[in-house]
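Below is the data:
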Amino acid sequence: MSFYIGLSILSNNEKADKRRQAGRRILSVFEGRDIEESDIGKEDQGRPFFKQRHADFNISHSGSLLAVSYIKRGDTRTGCDIEFIRTRCRAENIAKNYFSSAEYGYIFSSGTSDETRFFEIWTLKECYLKLRGLSVFDMKTSPSFIKEDSAFSQEKYFFSFGETVNTEISFYLYRISNSGGQYMMAVAIEGEDEEPEIKMFSQISLDCKRIVKIKAAPNPEETVMPKR
C-alpha cells in the first residue's frame, strides 16, 4: 500500500499558515521524515509538488476538515478536494455555466437543487483539475462525471467519465460526517488502480464512507461503470 488519504480536524477559522503546517505534519508521517516548506515547490499554475522526490500529494481544506492525498510510487499523480456540504445560493448558475447538461440534470432531477449531488460533481471535477495541475477557472473544460441514459434500469443518470485518457485514472468519492456536519471528498489517482488507505490525524472520530468509484481506462471497454 502506497496510496493514502490523511484527514485532520482543524478549527473553522484556522489561518492559512496553520493549515499548511497541518498538511506538512501529515506529509511528514507519510514520508517518514520531517517535511519543511523548502521541500515543496510549485508548478506554473500553483500546484504543489515534492522537489526531487518520487512521490506526489495534494491538499484540500473546507470548514473544519483538512484532507491530504499522498502516493509514493514513480511519477504517479493524485488530486484531492473536500467540501463542506451546504446551501450554495449560486448552485444553479454554477451548474448551468460550468457543468455538463447531464450533470445539471442529475443535480436538479427533482426540480430543485440537491446539495449533496452538487458537491459530488464539484469535488470530482476539482480533484481531476488538481491532478492535472489546473485551476477552478478551468472547470468548464473538465469532463462530465455523469451520463444520461434512459435505458439504464435503476435510474436515469449514472456516474461515468466523459473523456478518453492515455493513462488510467481512478476516482473515489466519499461522504464524511462529524458533529459539525457532512462533507463530500473526492480523490483521484493516475496510473495503476489502487484504493487509498484512510488515516485519521485527530482524536475525534469521523464517519468516512466511500459511495462511488469511477475508473477511466484508455480502452473504453475496460472502464468500470460504478455502483453506489
